[in-house]
Amino acid sequence: MILKKKINKWLYEKVLSLLRWQASVKLNYISVEGYRIAYLEGGNTEKKTLILIHGSNDEKESWLLMVSHLKKQYHLILIDLLGCGQSALPEDFNYAIPSQASFLEKTIKNLMAEKNITHFHLAGHSMGGLIVLLTDTLPIEKLILVDTMGITVKDSYYIQEGMKIGDITKLPWLNLCSKENLKQLIKEANYTTSYMPNFML
């Protein structure tokens, strides 16, 4: 069982490396208040910078499939939030959203100083969208929110189904304890789905 987990982790990391290579992005690190923060950088350095922030229980690589569509028009920076992906995971950090937003501001300010960036576009997905909404001291030209947590235009499919049975938490495929439940969630959460090997699931 331990060997299988090690093999799965190795395969997952190899897939991420392949996706980074295909997207022509480079893995880098920056120190912020003594913590190591991981980020990917690529695209056209002659163009405007676009910083991409992932959602909850996610990592910077979730943006990689979009990079091929953006890399000619933007200088791209994809950041792992503190405690996520390849960034540091300090046990004493308060991971509440306002704390994450404050730390992200410091991270971006450090990157701006290191890379001589004066203004940029900022995008956040899901929880990352809420975090970027709170980074209000940064020189952001355009703010892009993708399925941002806390902002509801209309009841989502999940909420509608949850209301039918009385409690959204009782939807069987929201209990991600099996591959079958995860496959169902992926199917419900995406307009179209790509093949995903079992070792990634």
Brief overview:
The protein is of the alpha/beta class and 201 residues long.
The radius of gyration over CA amounts to 18 Å
Query: What is the topology, as strand order, of the major beta sheet?
Result: 1-2-4-3-5-6
What class would the helix/strand composition place it in?
A: alpha/beta
Distance between the termini: 16 Å
The overall pLDDT average reads 87
Task: Characterise this structure.
This protein is α/β, with parallel strands linked by helices and 201 residues long. The chain has two domains: 2-151, Rossmann fold; 157-201, no CATH class. It is 37% helix and 20% strand. It contains six helices and six strands. The protein has a six-stranded mixed β-sheet with strand order 1-2-4-3-5-6. α2 (64-70) links the parallel β3 and β4. The radius of gyration is 18 Å and the shape is globular. The mean pLDDT is 87.
Topology overview:
Blueprint: H1 2-23, E1 25-32, E2 35-43, E3 49-53, H2 64-70, E4 75-79, H3 97-115, E5 120-125, H4 127-133, E6 140-146, H5 157-165, H6 179-189
Parallel strand pairs: 3-4, 3-5, 5-6
Antiparallel strand pairs: 1-2, 2-4
Which descriptors apply to this entry?
Rossmann fold, six-stranded mixed β-sheet, 6 helices, alpha/beta, 201 residues
